[in-house]
Amino acid sequence: MSYHNPYTPPRKSATFDDYTLAEIRRAAATGIYDIRGAGTKRKVPHFDDLLFLGASISRYPLEGYREKCDTTVVLGSRFAKRPITLKTPITIAGMSFGALSGNAKEALGRGATIAGTSTTTGDGGMTDEERGHSQTLVYQYLPSRYGMNPKDLRRADAIEVVVGQGAKPGGGGMLLGQKISDRVANMRNLPKGIDQRSACRHPDWTGPDDLEIKILELREITDWEKPIYVKVGGARPYYDTALAVKAGADVVVLDGMQGGTAATQDVFIENVGMPTLACIRPAVQALQDLGMHRKVQLIISGGVRSGADVAKALALGADAVAIGTAALVAIGDNDPHWEEEYQKLGTTAGAYDDWHEGKDPAGITTQDPELMKRLDPIAAGRRLANYLKVMTLEAQTIARACGKNHLHNLEPEDLVALTLEASAMAQVPLAGTSWIPGKGGF
Amino acid sequence: MDISVNRESLEAMRVFDLATTPLRELNSALHAIAPGTNDTNFEVVNPRGSHAVAVGIDQPVTVDVRGSVGYYCAGMNDGGTVTVHGSAGPGVAENMMSGTVVIEGDASQYAGATGRGGLLVIKGNAASRCGISMKGIDIVVHGSIGHMSAFMGQSGHLVVLGDAGDALGDSLYEAKLFVRGTVKSLGADCIEKEMRSEHREKLAELLERAGVTDVSPTEFKRYGSARKLYNFNIDNAEAY
């Protein structure tokens, strides 16, 4: 009897998958690590893994469109003479002029202002355009100190001391030569066209004791008027939050690994830092342990996309959220309208992340004068405002269904988790059970 | 310290005794100065290592601090003349925009960090990271400076009459460094450069502004960026 070896299909390695193989070949061919924008692309436990329970016999809901569900948030009430009040707890995260075009920064300011919220400068200083178009502007104080000056400190509405960001906790900024135009170079005191790598540590303080003195200095310079935020990446949220509070922060901004960056190493984005979901409860716990929950406000960012995400972050104890990537998408980033041009760049709408190259077809992550013209800041600002309002309405819809007359009244007890991982991270029960991994003895 | 002499001239000189007056009152008074006013002379006594003394000045006031200060004295100074008759803690004159800051004693780490303009004179020694990330400030140190000074310096001048520690000018951009004594080691991408006439002229001007009269520009060597790290090249990665 003859034996015929039956056909077996070729089997690719799960460890050495197509993307991994391509990355090895790319590194071997180019001699440089992959640099890109945005946040992590790997799947991590996220807000999608949580559900609200809504009302039932034991909880009764509020009427939609009739019974008020308040969304206002006050930030900076601990020490600042002039805390800021926002109509919605959804703020715009720090993104630099330099990484973004002037029109994009203007659009963010316009959209945030229409929606009654704040926008934030970035690693490059404050431009007149964004100050002029932003009713409430948070001025970032970064290790590079590009564009830092006392006049802009005083015309800001709040100051955000940036210790880290979720895409790269422990990493500095990066703006490659293609985007260092004359204006960007001038604002940063750098020669045109060089690769600009911002420092990862502040030049004049180290550790929480120094930070306390640095915050004192900033308060003295601005006569104790401005709320002072401290922004950290999602690394050690319990201790980072506690130390920020100890150092005198009015607000803690905590950015998980889904939070975007203008440019950094892919290996950094994908392998350093924790998912946003894993950061919130430890940070809230730190505030509660110090008796500072709701006194020092907590802003959560990194992968916030919808009103549901907002409601979930707030239910877990945050006071507000910040959006970056989602705001860019709202104003036109990665829009299929430019698909033909994305294809020419070897990518596709939805995947374009070479923001450091300055070739953005949508005219957002570029300093190219012709590309920049493609973004109408007024129309784009309107789109952002619409999006912010929709998210706010969505969060209110959920909060009303849970019987809450303020978004801040949402609580962990309104949530269940769909997965064990999310249950453990968010510290809410696995759906249909009363079990939270790590709680109750096992 | 007896401050009675100063009180006699109170009309011309406003005295803040930090032993009895909160820091807030001093900085608040400095910020309340109206442009063009004559009331511009301040004296601070008993600073006793206070932090953030005379920060955020934005008018051409004169402040004499009688004693030593803590962190960030004269931070973000924009147009004031601040003299510390003692030593200064970390970050003195950080991010200075314009004006003059003189330290009669020594200065701790990060002196003149990220400064954008003005003149910082340290008559004693300065510790590590003097002029770190400097962006246009001129710094003259009569004594020596510590390691990693002028790290990532972008522009401005650092003049050292004494010696420099390890890794001077590491990852330097366009700041110009002049050292009269020895340099223990140069940082990545920092090299000794030719001292041309325009550099000697600039150095002479800086020495004069800093009150140095007995030293010639010819005694200094100039250091600057080799500019090899301006655009990334994998073969330079070992420089880090």
From TrEMBL, chain A:
<dbReference type="InterPro" id="IPR002932">
    <property type="entry name" value="Glu_synthdom"/>
</dbReference>
<feature type="domain" description="Glutamate synthase">
    <location>
        <begin position="81"/>
        <end position="332"/>
    </location>
</feature>
<keyword id="KW-0560">Oxidoreductase</keyword>
<feature type="domain" description="Glutamate synthase">
    <location>
        <begin position="356"/>
        <end position="404"/>
    </location>
</feature>
<comment type="similarity">
    <text>Belongs to the glutamate synthase family.</text>
</comment>
<dbReference type="InterPro" id="IPR024188">
    <property type="entry name" value="GltB"/>
</dbReference>
<dbReference type="GO" id="GO:0006537">
    <property type="term" value="P:glutamate biosynthetic process"/>
</dbReference>
<dbReference type="Pfam" id="PF01645">
    <property type="entry name" value="Glu_synthase"/>
</dbReference>
<dbReference type="InterPro" id="IPR013785">
    <property type="entry name" value="Aldolase_TIM"/>
</dbReference>
<dbReference type="InterPro" id="IPR043578">
    <property type="entry name" value="GltB_archl_type"/>
</dbReference>
<protein>
    <submittedName>
        <fullName>Glutamate synthase domain-containing protein 2</fullName>
    </submittedName>
</protein>
<dbReference type="GO" id="GO:0015930">
    <property type="term" value="F:glutamate synthase activity"/>
</dbReference>
TrEMBL record, chain B:
<dbReference type="InterPro" id="IPR012061">
    <property type="entry name" value="Glu_synth_lsu_3"/>
</dbReference>
<dbReference type="InterPro" id="IPR036485">
    <property type="entry name" value="Glu_synth_asu_C_sf"/>
</dbReference>
<dbReference type="GO" id="GO:0016491">
    <property type="term" value="F:oxidoreductase activity"/>
</dbReference>
<protein>
    <submittedName>
        <fullName>Glutamate synthase domain-containing protein 3</fullName>
    </submittedName>
</protein>
